[in-house]
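Researcher: I'm preparing a figure for a lab meeting and need a structural model of a single chain. I don't have an experimental structure, so a prediction will have to do for now. The sequence is pasted below. Please return the structure as tokens so I can convert it later.
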Amino acid sequence: MIGKISGRLDWKGLDTVLIDCRGVGYILHVSDRTMASLPPEGEAVALYTELLVREDLLQLFGFPTMIEKEWHKLLTTVQGVGAKASMAILGTLGPEGVARAITLGDARAVQAAPGVGPKLAQRVILELKSKAPSLMAMGGRLSRGAEAAEVIESEPLVAAPAKKKAAKPAEKAPSEAAKRAASNADALSALANLGYGPSDAAEAVAIVSGENPDADTAALIRLALKRLAPR
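Model: Understood. Here is the structure written out token by token.
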């Protein structure tokens, strides 16, 4: 199983990219959101992958984070949601948006994805509402992007003079979306430890996170507890 592709981005199509891995090119299908986040052609890139195997077809799908890959796998367990529909949903909402839509029962948000009708959107909500919280709880540690390896053009045929080792590039700071996903996951875990049910906790965190996008973990927990308190 191919779990990750790392190399040089050779080409971008409408919904596919070609990544060169030391002379072997892999074509990956990606969402619109992922395509927009990729570097220019010729630069190093890395994507986590999921392989679709059929009798007459082999397709690789690429994802910038493991959490997005896991959402893709979960979405395709819904009857009628194939790889194309899953990529459309993720491309429209992103993994955090999918989690919020399922938690809040927002079928209209899912329906905003190209090719997804109202019946299919409602089915996604109904079938995944009980499964979403466990994946949301893992969001923080799975939201880190894949790291691209150094692009090597070719191996020298003869020994070359020693070169000064280049300084290792600094790791990219986590994106705001990744920080937010981590805070949501930590808040969800804290509520679960306090005895709240997964669905109630996930719904509360999704609502207060949407209303307070800049809130840190402590604030999310406090706001969620206030929302969950008996009235």
